Amino acid sequence: MRPDTPGWRGIHPDGVLLNQLAPEVDGLVALYVAAPGGRTRYLSKLASGAEVLVADAGGRTRTAMVGRAKIERRPL
């Protein structure tokens, strides 16, 4: 992905040497992501290899493949 291509992502500091980094929360797993063919997919149903749509700053879209999808359940 290029810097002008925002996308759905989650970041966790696994393997980072600094303990000060906190994970970034991306939202509820009941949310949707755009998929090719005018479809949507639940974030909770995505798996490695799934195709999603990403858009650049100019509104141009292209497909991208999910590399890793992981849901962590945390206590409230």
From TrEMBL:
GO BP of this protein: amino acid biosynthetic process; aromatic amino acid family biosynthetic process
Residue ranges of every copy of the 3-dehydroquinate synthase C-terminal domain listed in the record: 27-76
Taxonomic superkingdom: Eukaryota
Swiss-Prot/TrEMBL keywords: Amino-acid biosynthesis, Aromatic amino acid biosynthesis
Amino-acid biosynthesis is among the record's keywords: yes
Annotated Pfam families: DHQS_2nd
Keyword Zinc belongs to the record: no
Sample GO molecular function, one term: 3-dehydroquinate synthase activity
InterPro entries noted in UniProt: DHQS (IPR002812), DHQS_C (IPR056179)
Protein name per its UniProtKB record: 3-dehydroquinate synthase
Species of origin: Tetrabaena socialis
